[in-house]
Amino acid sequence: MNGEPNSTPGGQRFGYIAERMPHGSGYTGRLSTYVVHDAESGTDHTFMYADIVTEGFRTLHVGERVRFLVDLEEPDRARYIIRLDMPEVEDYYR
Amino acid sequence: MLRRIDRPIRFDRFPVTVARYNRFLEAVRQDGSRQWDHPDQPAEISHEPWQDRLRIPDYFTDPAYQNYPAVCVGYWSAYAFARYEGKRLPTSLEWEAAARGTDGRLFPWGDDIDLNIVSCADSWSGRKLITYEAWREELDRGRLAEAMPGPVDAHPGNISPYGLREMAGNVWEITATMLDHRDEVVICGGSYDNPYRAVQASSKGLARRNGRSNVIGFRCVEDA
Q1: Partners of residue B196 in chain A, C-beta under 8 Å
Q2: What is the pLDDT of residue B77?
Q3: Predicted TM-score (pTM) of this structure
Q4: What are the φ and ψ backbone dihedral angles of B176, each rounded to 5 degrees?
Q5: Phi, psi of A14, deg, nearest 5
Q6: Chain B residues touching chain A at CB-CB below 8 Å
Q7: The domain over range B9-118+146-223 is classified in CATH as 3.40.50.300
Q8: pLDDT band at A2 (very low <50, low <70, confident <90, very high)
């Protein structure tokens, strides 16, 4: 993420979705799990669909840019995943 | 942003049910679907529901679910189904206009919050989930474990100014609207696992054309 804020421990990080697996989360294990790659530190972190912060439908694409948090106590996991490349409002009306 | 619908259209009153979709599947199993398929549909696409993702494995075979919305079928299948019935998918603009009418209401029935007439996370929880943190806490504690699609006619009060039922909540609905440079379609209306603020008449999301989900169904329109 050129020019983006750095990935300080416990702070906001920037990266992209490296892998999406169709199963592994949700009450029945039938919902998607993801791997996000920290673009600055080079580390990978897993998260479940519910970690995507939105009011609506939760999904992400491989390669999609996101920002996220990592707890020091649980460094393998990411949380508070926020999509960065959302379309403009008018794009939804065609 | 004001938009106008220039042509008269007739919407399905309800989302497509399992019973309707099963009739389509019978026709496809007998004669194939080539005459209804989207010209860009990938060769590997099947119109069968994604069994591994279905939260209720016998959803499409247990008669108890015949009046429930068809889910775990994606854009390609929704497109083919609509053509099978001589219809098409609505655009996102048509969908929102049908849900909101001309007075800009928040919900199909008006502006009032009523947990008794919509299937959403708040109604399954029994309390209002105002923030993401509140929704997440409810999910992590297992209080949304029973949330699932419900019958398409379960909430007579969930009705738009034009008489369309169950547009808010229950399941997102696939539209024909695609975004440039993204293999995604716009989905509308929110679903049973979303908080109340996500089941408005203007609520929109994006779903991959190859994707299928327990929270996504569809309805059709025909040009009048």
Answers
A1: none
A2: 98
A3: 0.92
A4: -85, 0
A5: -125, 145
A6: 1, 3, 52-55, 91-93, 96, 132, 136, 139-140, 142, 144-145, 172, 177-180, 182, 186-187, 190-191, 194-195, 197-198, 203-208, 211, 213-216
A7: no
A8: very low
In chain B, residues with a C-beta closer than 8 Å to the C-beta of A55 are 132, 194-195, 197-198, 203
Q: Report phi then psi at B130, rounded to 5.
A: -75, -35
Q: What is the 3-state secondary structure (H, E, C) of B150-205?
A: CCCCCCCCCECCCCCECCCCCCEEEEEEECCCCCEEEEECCCCCCCHHHCCCCCEE
Q: Report residue A68 as tokens.
A: 């996220």
User: A13: closest CA among A69, A54, A63, A74?
Assistant: A69
* Residue A2 amino acid letter: N
Token pair recorded at residue B190: 């929110």
State the burial class of residue B163 (Cβ atoms within 10 Å of its Cβ: 0-12, 13-18, 19+): exposed
pLDDT, tens only, B69-102: 999 999 999 999 999 999 999 999 999 999 999 9
pLDDT in tens, A6-43: 455 668 999 999 999 887 777 777 778 999 999 999 99
Whether B52 and B72 have beta carbons less than 8 Å apart is answered as: no
CB contact at 8 A, B169 and B151: no
- Residues B135-155: tens digit of each pLDDT: 999 999 988 989 999 999 999
Whole-number Cα distances in Å, A10 to A39, A48, B170: 15, 19, 37
Residue B68 in 3-state DSSP? coil
Phi and psi for B77 in degrees, rounded to 5? -75, -35
Please state, in angstroms and rounded to a whole number, the distance separating the CA atoms of residues B124 and B66: 22
Task: Please report how the helices B75-84 and B18-31 are oriented relative to each other, as an axis angle in degrees rounded to 10.
Answer: 80
Sorted by where each begins, the domain ranges of chain B are 9-118+146-223
Nearest Cβ partner of A28 from B55, B142, B190? B55
